Amino acid sequence: MTASTAVRVSVTLLGSFSLRLDGRPVRKWRAGKARSLFQYLLVHRDRVVLRDKLHEVLWPHSDWSPNSSSLKVAMHALRQILQTSPDGTNTSGVRIVHQDFGYALYADGISVDVDEFEAMVEAGRAADKVGDTPRAVAAYRAAMEVYQGDFLPGDSADWIVEQREWCKSLALRALDRLSTEAARVGDFDQLVRWCRRTIELDPYRESAYQMVMSAHGRFGELAAVRRWHDMCTRRLAEELGVRPNQETERAYFAAMRGEGRAAAPLRAVPGPRVVRPHRALAIRDAS
Question: Where's DNA bound on this chain (predicted)?
Answer without folding.
Answer: 1-107
